[in-house]
Design a protein that fits this description.
Blueprint lengths: L1 H17 L3 H12 L2 E8 L27 E4 L1 H4 L8 E5 L10 E8 L8 E5 H6 L6 H5 L4 E8 L9 E4 L7 E7 L7 E7 L7 E2 L1 E4 L2 E5 L9 E7 L4 E8 L8 E3 L5
Parallel strand pairs: 1-5, 2-4
Antiparallel strand pairs: 1-6, 2-5, 3-4, 3-6, 7-8, 7-15, 8-12, 9-10, 9-13, 11-12, 13-14
Helix pairs in contact: 1-2
């Protein structure tokens, strides 16, 4: 602990001279915190993805690559009114049926009725993956269990950021669900940049991982680039990802990721 305190003091001293942002301090503190106590349950089918999508708006993507059903709903400190969607955590348990090995999950849903300071309502798949061989059902049948968790970077190999256009979008209104962000995983700001423009339009956080804005297609034409800012102030511009002739209900995959 003395070493960690000394490291934090040294880092803060450097920030005073290099004008570091507070988000970097927050990220550093999170990395030093290590595993913390939480509560876990599971919901949905024993070998399923919890729900077919959930409150983050990822729909059936939760059961497909790269999530592969390793997902979780979270209570208020994890879900953060939707701004926690996409964040990744390692969760582990040390009870009789548990292997003690951590499982990495992505927050894809909300659990408003979950109790405890931090509560993961895991998919059946994720809960079972924490168990020793042959003990998955025994672990799932225990109900509320004590676990340890820590925030970790999201790593989606061979996958780039994708934008799913909401079916309710039209020529004057664009709403997109943002998926598969490496690193921080969650977003604090989404901006739309029309073609041949340097002026961005700040999109509104609608729910979960869905962001929207009104557009004037004659003055703000496609293709649209989208600029993403994460919780810890990492930034990524996805160029021309929403093409000319875009369609509601379509998913547009990019060529980039954090």
């Amino acid at each position: 602990m003395a070493f960690n305190l000394h490291l934090i003091i040294t880092f803060l001293a450097l920030c005073l001279f290099q004008q570091c942002t507070c988000t970097h301090v927050k990220s550093l503190n999170a990395s030093l915190a290590g595993f913390q106590p939480a509560v876990a349950t599971f919901y949905g089918a024993p070998n399923g993805a919890g729900s077919d999508g959930g409150a983050c708006g990822y729909t059936n993507a939760v059961s497909q690559t790269p999530y592969n059903s390793f997902v979780s709903a979270g209570n208020a400190p994890l879900f953060r009114k939707g701004l926690g969607c996409g964040a990744c955590y390692q969760v582990q348990c040390n009870l009789g049926p548990c292997s003690g090995n951590p499982v990495t999950v992505t927050i894809t849903d909300e659990c408003p009725s979950c109790s405890g300071a931090v509560h993961f309502d895991l998919s059946g798949t994720a809960m079972g993956a924490m168990a020793k061989p042959g003990q998955a059902d025994a672990l799932r049948n225990m109900g509320n269990i004590g676990v340890s968790y820590q925030r970790v970077p999201c790593v989606y190999k061979n996958t780039n950021v994708a934008f799913k256009v909401d079916p309710g979008s039209n020529a004057n209104f664009l709403s997109v669900n943002v998926e598969f962000e490496n690193g921080d995983g969650d977003l604090n700001l989404v901006e739309l940049v029309p073609a041949r423009s340097t002026q961005s339009i700040t999109m509104n956080h609608v729910f979960g991982a869905t962001w929207s804005t009104n557009i004037n297609p004659s003055a703000q034409p496609a293709p649209y680039s989208i600029r993403l800012t994460t919780e810890f102030n990492k930034k990524l511009t996805v160029p021309n990802v929403i093409p000319v002739g875009w369609k509601p209900g379509q998913t547009y995959n990019s060529n980039v990721n954090f």
